């Protein structure tokens, strides 16, 4: 059986698209299947989770009620035109307000967050609570524009715990609260170019497979980077992908022309964390051979696995870290992200070492912000660049968003038993087990597997199970994404092509985050049925030969 409406030539043309655009074409096919049958379209293409963390949201809305009550207490004018929260005595008023809500989970988190801020962080009570109440109302521009002071300290502790194993010897990281991880990447790449720390045509190393937009950014005309792929090409003795990086690939970083290393850790789509040995090898290269190497790491999935280590903990002075709250907390719609740069960084040292003509040009760019523009650190230049410098006075993430970020961070800092983390891990593991059960396959135990996504290489599986002849037949007669078109048209299931992430061409990405648990059984069975069609077609041609 072949795809009814899509020819091989059409598939070949469509698979040149970004997998996120190709997914839309597949969804249209799946929608046609849905209209013809009683089967509901299952879109496991995107990673938007279908679970959320309720308690910090409860706390957010409770805090909003308190902030509004504080504002209404300052009713100098009409009841529909009130003042703003007042600082003096606000901590005592907040405690009294919380005492009336003993059984509320959100109120309990607020109470514990207040105690944590005062007792563990040393915050002045009125200053801390006023920041909470004023920010939730959203009546001021962000000040400081980079990140609110109390919020930055709480998030800093959260990042050290989740990204760095709680290490306290890495120095202080300055944080920039941004509109999700995607905004973070736009700001980082732009500021690297603007500040002459990277240049069009530079070599940039990407640890692949990797999130497709990061591949596409490097090809844009304003960047035009020369890409060097560091391939997760290791396999098990049985020939299965382990999605790790061999020494020979890591050693590409020894090339002094490679200016930037870019990675997603844990990876997307394989969804495994980079092994300790690879992290240590990168650290040794940076320490001994490449102290100038710029590292950008997107660690959004790091909170889904115990004992995660970011490159920010291995190469703190060289690394720009991006963390997003979107996946772990089911908060893609909140657009919450943070950029972290160590206060002792190579970026500020590189700025100081720029040729004088470059310094003079940057003096003119940032001269409206300070009388000493050469003292402006890289992360603060990033804030200014995010608003084209001239609008720096209104830069920064909205204050209610920053409060949600603080509450998510505090929620996990106060979850000493990691109850939420383990619940999220168990959910992902259950869905993976259902998918594999439907496929009727097993996966090897891997302590580095996160499993938020799973990448399945069907060509590799076909060759391992039935021999190289079947693999040659598939490559000669079908496009790598043929499987996805069949799946969408025949079953209404939408997946994404792993080749679009610079992974194996015949691989597919399944998100284990966004569908009901039992639907992964159906996806597994459907994938197995489609794979069986190719096998039957091969055997039929063999028999007829």
What would you note in describing this structure?
The protein is an alpha/beta fold and 545 residues long. It has three domains: 8-47 and 419-544, Aspartate Aminotransferase, domain 1, CATH 3.90.1150.10; 54-137, Histone, subunit A (Orthogonal Bundle); 149-345 and 396-413, Type I PLP-dependent aspartate aminotransferase-like (Major domain) (Aspartate Aminotransferase, domain 2), CATH 3.40.640. Helices cover 48% and strands 11% of the residues. The chain contains 21 helices and twelve strands. The protein has helices spanning 8-14, 19-36, 54-72, 90-99, 105-119, 125-137, 149-164, 180-194, 212-219, 247-250, 276-288, 311-314, 346-352, 356-366, 378-385, 399-413, 419-439, 458-466, 468-477, 482-491, 519-544, and strands at 42-43, 173-178, 203-208, 226-231, 258-264, 294-298, 319-324, 337-342, 453-457, 493-494, 496-497, 507-511. The chain is globular and about 90 Å long.
Main traits of this protein?
seven-stranded mixed sheet; 11% strand; Histone, subunit A; Aspartate Aminotransferase, domain 1; 48% helix; Aspartate Aminotransferase, domain 2; alpha/beta; 545 residues
Q: Kindly report the CATH topology of the largest domain.
A: Aspartate Aminotransferase, domain 2
The total tally of domains equals 3
Largest sheet: 7 strands, mixed
Low-confidence region ranges: none
Give the rounded overall mean pLDDT: 93
Tally of individual helices: 21
- Please identify the structural class as seen in this structure: alpha/beta
Cα(first) to Cα(last) distance is 19 Å
Radius of gyration: 26 Å
For this structure, what is the CATH homologous superfamily of the largest domain? Type I PLP-dependent aspartate aminotransferase-like (Major domain)
Indicate the overall shape.
globular
CATH class of the largest domain: Alpha Beta
Q: Kindly report the spatial arrangement of strands forming the biggest sheet.
A: 2-8-7-6-5-3-4
Q: DSSP strand (E) fraction?
A: 5-15%
Q: How does CATH name the architecture of the largest domain?
A: 3-Layer(aba) Sandwich
Helix residue percentage: 40-55%
What oligomeric state do these chains adopt?
A: single chain
Using DSSP, what is the number of strands? 12
